[in-house]
Write a structure and sequence with these properties.
The structure is a single chain. Helix content is 15%, strand content 35%. The chain is of the alpha+beta class. The strands form 7 sheets. The chain has a 6-stranded mixed β-sheet. The protein has a 4-stranded antiparallel β-sheet with strand order 3-2-1-30, with no helix packed on it. Strands 4-5-6-7 form a 4-stranded antiparallel β-sheet, with no helix packed on it. A hairpin with a 5-residue loop joins β8 and β9. α3 packs across α5 and α4 packs across α5. It starts with a strand and ends with a helix. The relative contact order is 0.12.
Length: 484
């Protein structure tokens, strides 16, 4: 069974709490936080980020430390946050309607622009990180192309500079936007955009051409939305505490003209397809602020103003577990993620102890690069003008496809074998090379042998780089003196 962790954040001053999805056991807490709805997200695999209610601050935590790791400040109060899948870009929606995009590794503010007329209440990146969708209190939903927004040749101070324009601007809602979720769709162009609003409606658009696909009318204001993994069903959390399930295929979709063809949903009519509510799930006594699917797509987790989070079995639509916030405060932020290795019980059990100490509190050896976020555009952040943003190369192997991992390991093994030429051949050295890690051997003598092989390889690479540098220097000198 895959270990999964549920993270709960509150809108009033209280710790961020982590819970085991399968057992409801409290794993750990992170001090201290007060974030608005849609103001809590993960950044890559190593960090948690939360905007702070009533402040212009952004707080970061890492999994293995319960104290705030980093606190950055924006130009204004941030209402919503989002990050790309790989954690390289962070977006924040301001109370004025401006959107800010930072580079996490350097902390640089890459772009800020007036995306809306009122506070930006929802943000979402496409899975490929190519587009950003924003929703605001001005009832508008905009889709932005990041390649255009982050074009380094654009100079906002130039007289010829024009404000960024969205690829799509949707104005189908009549009250403020409360939530946005994007479907995978296999590509950014095929993805669907789902927006929820206080006007008691949920609307689906197609990202490629902006077509209106479908709409759902609800008896209460829609505050949160979630899509199942296959995008067959849509779940909507409402202000009355009810979760509505809407089928996107089959008989659950009824066209405005009375048909019930699933093709109407895929193609969309001039007025959009009208979708019916297939089921209702009621256990919360107050508004449902956040919804999240489990990693295995078998459960739905809901968080509410009543201070609880409920785990629902999607097959039976019944609650299987209730998690109560220790401080009994409204829950505004919710994440369901694979449990980090150091929080997984050392004995392989299904849950950590109530104190959260069954797993190791030691974090990863190398954290993903993260720098303090700059407040203004043009500030260098943590890098010098001649430096590029730091990246971790060895940490990326874990995220590769199996075929890619095999290719990388084969190349590394071959390099070490070439580096070992000239060293006394021994079974220990061969074992270390084949295991691809110095940690594969335990005795001091064996580790020395393996390290010597890597040292020879490193020296050989250094010699090649020096020779290349000398050639480049000679070429540059010749070009300057005219003797090249």
């Amino acid at each position: 069974m895959q270990h999964q962790v549920v993270l709960l954040a509150s809108g009033t001053e209280a710790p961020v709490t982590a819970w085991d999805l399968n057992t409801g056991t409290h794993l750990t807490s992170y001090k201290t936080n007060a974030s608005p709805r849609n103001g809590f997200c993960c950044v890559g695999r190593d960090y948690l980020l939360a905007a702070q209610t009533g402040k212009d601050a952004l707080q970061f935590w890492t999994w293995h430390k319960d104290q705030v790791l980093q606190r950055s400040f924006a130009m204004e109060r941030i209402m919503s946050v989002a990050a790309t899948t790989d954690g390289t870009l962070i977006a924040g929606g301001g109370a004025s309607g401006a959107v800010y995009v930072w580079e996490a590794g350097s902390g640089r503010l890459l772009r800020s622009w007036a995306a809306h007329y009122k506070a930006v209440t929802a943000l979402a990146f496409t899975p490929c990180s190519g587009m950003l969708v924003t929703g605001a209190e001005d009832t508008l939903v905009h889709a932005w192309v990041l390649a255009e927004l982050l074009d380094s040749s654009l100079d906002p101070s130039s007289p010829a500079f024009t404000a960024p324009q969205p690829l799509h601007a949707w104005s189908d809602h009549t009250l403020p936007i409360t939530s946005i979720v994007l479907g995978a769709g296999g590509s950014a162009a095929a993805a669907i955009v789902v927006s929820a609003s206080l006007d008691r409606s949920v609307i689906l658009h197609r990202l490629s051409d902006g077509a209106l696909l479908a709409r759902v009318a609800l008896p209460a204001a829609a505050l949160s939305v979630a899509l199942d993994a296959g995008e067959h069903a849509l779940y909507v959390g409402s202000s009355d505490g009810t979760i509505y399930e809407v089928s996107l295929v089959g008989d659950g979709a009824a066209s405005a003209s009375g048909g019930n063809s699933a093709a109407d949903v895929a193609v969309g009519t001039a007025g959009g397809t009208v979708l019916r509510v297939a089921a209702r799930m009621s256990s919360h006594s107050r508004a449902v602020n956040a919804l999240a699917m489990s990693v295995d797509a078998e459960h739905l987790v809901s968080a509410s103003d009543d201070g609880s989070a409920i785990v629902w079995d999607l097959r039976s639509r019944q609650p299987v577990r209730s998690i109560q916030s220790p401080a009994k405060v409204p829950v505004t932020g919710l994440l369901v993620l694979p449990t980090p290795t150091h929080l997984v019980p050392s004995g392989g059990g299904s849950a950590a102890s109530a104190s959260g100490r069954s797993g190791s509190r030691q974090g990863p050896k190398r954290l993903q690069p993260l720098a303090p976020l700059t407040k203004y555009t043009g500030m260098p952040g943590s890098v010098q003008p001649w430096e590029s943003t730091p990246v971790i190369l060895d940490g990326s192997v874990a995220d590769m496809a199996p075929a890619s991992v095999a290719t990388v390991l084969a190349a590394h093994r071959s390099a070490l074998q070439h580096a070992a030429v000239g060293l006394a051949a021994s079974p220990v050295a061969a074992a270390a090379i084949d295991a691809m890690s110095v940690d594969a051997v335990t005795s001091p003598e064996d580790r020395v042998t393996a390290l010597e092989a890597e040292l020879v390889f490193a020296k050989r690479q250094a010699a090649e780089y020096k020779a290349l540098h000398a050639q480049l220097l000679a070429f540059a000198s010749g070009a300057l003196t005219g003797t090249a």
